[in-house]
Structures are given as structure tokens and as C-alpha cells.
């Protein structure tokens, strides 16, 4: 069994690391380059915090703010479909989130042009989380010193992109740049000849696989939910079970073969 922890939260240093040490087990931790190099929170985390702050009771208010921002930026330097079209295309509930939440996540994590996503996410973040981004980032993620101590104590670190992009959505040049930058940031933490990849959002493509294989990656973890078979699975495409599939959140694990 291998436990993996994504995104480099300080919670993993404060709470997970001591429990692993007490039980003499090693964990695999993946951290995106940007949070370390720039002390800037990832968009995906800003969106999580905005959603958490709005909560169920202010969700409709958040949704109408998102619509207003979409209207505000549409037709400036960007062109994207109407709110109704976007909602019809993207609002499909999954096993974790209802369709409004999925719509907000997809709009801001992948659908819009990158700069539009950044602008709208920043506007929402400023409104819902009124503290400086650098403070937020320092409180949310682990830092280099903590990572070095964890590494010395037998924990493993994996590459998790620089910007936490959906790698399959980038063109070759952008994808290679994002991966190279993330490798550079983790200098001294990972072995460049033999490193592990945890694909952000589980997103990869044939191009991603061939690029990382050519650049020293020998193990990769997706977000496919099933038991890994070390004999049969491709080393760069190992599946994982998700904590959300276990109690108290759900009993899905019973259905996983
Ligand atoms: Zn992640």
C-alpha cells in the first residue's frame, strides 16, 4: 500500500507527516512548483476556498456573481459563449459535486481562456477571502525547509506541474515548459534521473507521457479509481483510490474492484 497526498498542503506536514512517522510508513507528496517558487496560491485552491466560504447557503449568490463577471469580461479581450450555453455544456453533476458547483469549477479551472479564468478567480477570491495572497499561500502550503525535513525522514516527493494545469489541454511547448519549470523548482528534493509524476486533475496525454519518460520520470499516478496492479499496470499510469470513496463520505470503495 502507498498513501499519496496531493498539492503540498501544510496540513500534510503538520498532521500527516507525524502520523506516518509514528507508524513507520512512507508517503508520496506532490507539490506544484508555483506555490514554492512564487508563494502564490494555485487557482484550484482559490476556487476551493471561495466555494467553501460561500457554502451551500450562499451558492446562488456566488453563481450570480460568476454570471456577472462572465458578462463583464465577455467581449473585452476574450470571446466565449453566453452564460446559458456555458451552463448547458458544463453543469453536469458528478459523484462529488452538484451541477452548480461543477459549473463554477469547470468555468474557472479549464473552460475559459487562461487570463479570463485568472481575472474572474482573483475577483472572487478578493471578495470572499480578504487577505493578501502571499499570507494565504504561506498558511496553506508547506515550504522547502519542511519538505527537506520530510525527505530526510524518508518521505517521497513527486512532480505535480508548475501551474497545476490540465496537461492534456496544453500545446506541446506549454506542456514541456510547465513540466520543466516544476522539475527546476524541485531541485534537491527529487532525483531528476528517476522521478515520480502525479498528474494534476489526473490529466495526461500521449505527448505528456512520452515527454516525461524521455526526461527521467519512471512512475506516474493518475486519478483513475481502482486498485493498482503492479504487474499489469503501465508504471506511468498507476490508478489510485480516493479518500472521498471511503467513510465517512461514502461507501463507494465497496464497489471498486
Ligand atoms: Zn492537485
From TrEMBL:
This is Polysaccharide deacetylase. GO terms for cellular component: extracellular region. It is found in: Secreted. It holds the Pfam family Polysacc_deac_1. PROSITE patterns: NODB. Transmembrane segments: none annotated. Its main location: secreted. Keywords: Signal. It comes from the Bacteria. It comes from Paenibacillus durus.
